[in-house]
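Just curious: can you write a single protein's sequence together with how it folds?
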Amino acid sequence: MSKVGFVGLGIMGTPMAGQLLAGGHELFVMGAHDSRGGKSVICLHSTARVADATISTIVASLPLGTRVTTPRHHVQYVVTEYGAANLGMLTDVGRMDALIAIAHPDFREELRAAAREFN
């Protein structure tokens, strides 16, 4: 099974926030996508600060055991301060390329290296 394009929702560097899992994130993006003329859009900063380190919010894979709140087929648009990626109808490789293009520039080469390993 492909791991490209899932969304894990929680607070980085802390245990998963259980109240967010019950909050209906998947239903929200489904409703946005399925409404007349609607689109599912997930907006996020390209980086986050965790324990005095800057990390990318776009990652090559989620750690084993991470709860996935939005499966890949419900992720259409992802937006960061570096652009927007329309993941709808893209192959796994296309999804990787599109997400790398909107990742923070400091992390793109690392993501490209991980993508090469995936292929």
Notes: The helical segments are 18-21, 25-34, 92-102, 108-118. The chain has one domain: 18-118. The beta strands are 41-43, 47-50, 53-56, 77-80, 83-86.
